[in-house]
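Table S2 (text version). Query chain:
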Amino acid sequence: MENKYASRVALLQSAMAEKGIDALIISNTDPHSSEYPAGRWCQVEWVSGFTGEAAEIVITANHSGLWTDTRYFIQAGIQLKGTGIALHKTRVPDQVLIPEYLATALKEIPSHPVRIAYDGLCQSVERIKELRDALSAAYGADGYRLVDLPDFLSEFWKDRPAIPATPVTWPDQKLFGETRAEKLEWLRKEVASRGCRYMLVTALDEIAWLLNVRGEDIDYNPYVISYLVVSDNGSCWFVRDADNVPRVPEVSVTGYGALGTGLESMAGEGGSLLVDPSTLNGNVYDLLERTFTSGRIVFGTSPIIVRKAVRNRTEITNLRKAHLMDGLAMEKFLHWVELNVKSREPITEWDASVKLTELRSETEGYHGNSFENISAYGENAALPHYSTPVSGSAVIEKRGLYLVDSGGQYDFGTTDITRTVPMGRCSRKEKEDYTLVLKGMIDLAMAVFPKGTAGCQIDALAREPLWKNHRSFGHGTGHGIGHYLGVHEGPQSIRQNFNRQPLLPGMVTSDEPGLYREGKYGIRHENVLLCVEDGDNEFASWLKFETLTLCHIDTKPVRTRLLTDEELSWLNSYNKRVYKTLSPYLDPETRLWLKKKCRKLSRGWFE
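Corresponding structure-token output:
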């Protein structure tokens, strides 16, 4: 029987031939450049069956390919099997990205201009510019045509989900430490300082932060699909199901589809409009060009991005509370896993995932998980973003390593934690890998660095223990995390890719080195770090990290000979703090179990 995804590719190739299209780009984002789109825009998955969130597809008359990064190479190899879609690897030394690929792949097309189509609703202006630059260099200004085909897949995707419109909520503004009126007034001043009268905000996380509003339009992300225009004398929110949105005095509300009319009205009043090209889609940009006269559209990085990433005192206090509550759920879960794996009744990865969500749901202020639980045993943990199947998931056995990567959305903040734990006897190699990854996590957590340091400048701290032993991992070490927002947010990051953004006091990042042996096992240790000040002297103003995550690190697989005295001291101090902080809230049985897990680790003469 023919693979259904191969059939879909063939169907699209036939439609392309009818329309005179030489290449079709299919993205995996929405009109707001979201990392995690609602089901309507999971276009890559519909075409290919690939479920990773970071991917794009290019289809030509004789080739179809999927571009994704190192986190998904193993997963893509499995999910693309039989589809005829080739894997193009990114974040590797010899990568050829889509603009460069298209600059050469269509050279054999006859002399007429090559025609490359995309869905302008789901391509940012920034991405379109990258494409234009590469194609202009390869084919000349007259040698290619870009064709915008909005919602192109709807013709073939018969059961395509509708744009969601879930209930909108306005949480208590005291949770955020700043009212929406204060945030809007700050933004108006920022916009005016750039010589503009208006700003069009297109990123969903920025809108949610600015308005102190939350929704459920996207799984695991508390966003409302919408656009927002902030002017010098008001703000207008363009949102679906506007009639049912509760009103607040600082914001006027109208329909999502009325954006064009609203922009036309503003254009007639005069003044320039600020917009961020990294999240503005091509369709809306075309609309802006038709309504605003030349020179009145000002491109610039959104001022909201950095301001949102730096937590105020209230947010930091609440975030500590979120991690305390999340840590309690995690300890109850890890205790449950250990007990049940030892019992006669087998538990699967899916059973464990369901139990973890159940325990989190009992926590105060819980609003769902911050991403899909990664519950992976043995060789499945070698897939960094493993998707645990409902049926047919692996039984967790009384040996080897089990990895669980998860997080919660709470009134008080967003959490993200990974623990790799032994289920029984582990091999010498598993223990060695476990310890080297742990060294990297500890070394980054202990970092001290001068103000102005970017994450990419300290990324090697988490990699060096692995590099010295000729081991490595392909993904980033740390990502920013939102405040009851997205689990992946910038602008800060800790990764090898160059990123100018310095780490600032109040910024939050993950700390998650890993190691993956295909077909065997995977290891990742992840805590969440808060950047804090560490004093001044004649050399610099100094920064360090505070570890927010509260959940013990299992010391059973640790090879202490691989740890320095400082690393061993950090590990013992961390586990001691976890027990001291969490034990008053645990039932006697779990408290006793945790006390044993947090016992001081000493060097073993037998190693």
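Notes on Table S2: The two ends are 55 Å apart (CA to CA). The mean pLDDT is 94.
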